[in-house]
Design the sequence.
């Protein structure tokens, strides 16, 4: 089942049909004792809704914080080491890749998150910006993984590469994160064969970059990442955790305003966002 948050309330999709969810509070859904069973009951007791197609999809987030894990794929390790070599930080990334403790960092509040079809931003003071397609976990307040969505961890590689301590500035800013298009509701681990794909189009034309990987390349288990996040933190509304990227564009590539980023994770769906640069008002 897939859970959608829209301008007209919450809907659950099952078997190609969409059903209106009586509970309108997304935080209450995330905190539900058994979200899957509740949504199954909604499907079995309801009838398909005809008004889902008219609703605008919104980011599937309520009051949750978004966190992220870094250097969880070998490709990411190699890219981080190369970009920070001149700053003397390359060894840090190699060490965290092999360490027991993962790199975890705060990524976004809900107000900074872009939803499906809305804009993500590149910093005005960055010269080298990339999207990072990531499987993103939805974790309930009890620390249990209850669903998955697609995430875009927008990153300013030149800023982080100048000094690893600049990571918060490279990663955390308005509309530096996108989530969607829905929550795949499941507590079961996704198969290692799950594909993650990205395509970037420029000027309405052909793709200027595309790439793909699978969860088989993810070094750490999602459940272990979630356990570390909740080890000394409480999240009364639950949390999202981006699990890192295994797809990094070549060093001569940078995003430009007007680019369209499409991230597809089967069986979740496709998250699509346009890229803008400038004041936040132009990015909503």
Sequence:
């Amino acid at each position: 089942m897939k859970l959608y948050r829209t301008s007209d309330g919450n809907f659950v999709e099952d078997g190609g049909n969409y059903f209106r969810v009586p509970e309108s509070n997304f935080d209450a859904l995330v905190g539900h004792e058994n979200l899957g069973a509740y949504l199954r009951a909604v499907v079995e007791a309801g009838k398909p809704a005809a008004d889902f197609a008219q609703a605008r999809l919104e980011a599937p987030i309520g009051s949750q914080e978004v966190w992220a894990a870094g250097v969880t794929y070998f490709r990411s390790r190699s890219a981080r080491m190369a970009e920070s070599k001149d700053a003397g930080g390359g060894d840090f990334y190699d060490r965290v890749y092999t360490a027991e403790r993962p790199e975890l960092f705060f990524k976004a509040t809900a107000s900074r998150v872009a939803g499906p079809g809305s804009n993500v931003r590149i910093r005005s003071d960055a010269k080298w910006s990339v999207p990072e397609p990531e499987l993103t976990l939805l974790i309930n307040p009890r620390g249990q993984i209850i669903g998955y969505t697609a995430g875009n961890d927008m990153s300013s590689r030149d800023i982080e590469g100048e000094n690893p301590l600049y990571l918060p500035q490279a990663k955390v800013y308005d509309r530096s994160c996108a989530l969607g298009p829905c929550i795949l509701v499941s507590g079961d681990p996704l198969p290692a064969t799950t594909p993650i794909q990205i395509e970037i189009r420029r000027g309405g034309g052909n793709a200027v970059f595309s790439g793909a990987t699978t969860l088989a390349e993810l070094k750490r288990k999602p459940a272990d990442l979630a356990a570390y996040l909740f080890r000394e933190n409480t999240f009364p509304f639950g949390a999202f955790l981006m699990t890192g990227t295994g797809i990094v564009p070549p060093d001569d590539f940078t995003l430009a305003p007007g680019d369209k980023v499409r991230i597809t994770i089967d069986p979740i769906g496709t998250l699509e966002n346009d890229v803008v640069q400038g004041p936040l008002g132009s990015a909503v």
Remarks:
- The longest helix spans residues 35-45.
- The chain has a mean pLDDT of 92.
- Helices lie at 26-30, 35-45, 74-83, 90-98, 157-162, 167-171, 222-229.
- The domain at 65-276 is CATH 3.90.850.10 (Fumarylacetoacetate hydrolase; domain 2).
